[in-house]
Amino acid sequence: GLTFSIMLFKSVVFEYGEDDHEQLFKIANVVGGKGLINYANSLNVQLDEKTIDTLNEKKGVDWESFINEKNESNCSEEAIDLLKKMMVIDHRNRITAD
User: What is the pTM of this model?
Assistant: First the structure.
């Protein structure tokens, strides 16, 4: 999914964090924090309250917001739909090759 997003948008959509904690917040800036919290809960991963509060503030953005004049020819409706299915947070719900 990440590689596909770079191919579509001709840029890296996720900024690099200094550590795992910061990386989580960078991802949440794009995909939103609620899904990450739900995923952690489903895997019995305990997040501290400060992390949960910060993630709750992250609303995410629409993938379409990355479309611009340089990449719009790559970004058909079908391509964006596939990207959305590839970038589902919960691996159990993510599209597979099958």
Answer: 0.88
